[in-house]
Amino acid sequence: MKLSKMLAVVGLSTLFFAGCCSVSDEEYAALDALQNSVNQKHNTISQLNGKKADINKQIADKQKKLEECNQLKNEVNKNLNKIQK
After folding, report:
1. How far apart are CA 52 and CA 46, in angstroms?
2. What does 36-71 look like in DSSP terms, one character per residue?
3. pTM for the predicted model, two decimal places
4. What are the b/e assignments for 69-83, b being 16+ CB within 10 Å?
5. Angstrom distance (rounded) from CA 82 to CA 49
6. Each residue of 28-80: pLDDT tens digit?
7. How far apart are CA 58 and CA 50, in angstroms?
8. What is the chain's Cα-based Rg?
């Protein structure tokens, strides 16, 4: 007898929570739209991070070239100073 009452309570509780906690089609559609938006944002972030990496590489290459030019300039200035003395 107690088992049947317990099953009845569990069954009614399940029906109650299922009715109260169900998600409508509109809510599913909104969640899908939100997930699509998030995925697009992640793709955009990935693309921008790729561009950022390319730009950082270009900057590093130009800084290396600038350092080489400065070293050459310093060497030329040293040689000019030697000649002028």
Report:
1. 10
2. HHHHHHHHHHHHHHHHHHHHHHHHHHHHHHHHHHHH
3. 0.58
4. eeeeeeeeeeeeeee
5. 49
6. 899 999 999 999 999 999 999 999 999 999 999 999 999 999 999 999 999 99
7. 13
8. 35
| Amino acid identity at 42 | H
Distance CA 68, CA 80 (A): 18
Structure tokens at 42: 């992640």
Identify residue 51 by its one-letter amino acid code: K
Structure tokens at 15: 């029906």
The predicted structure's pLDDT at residue 6: 61
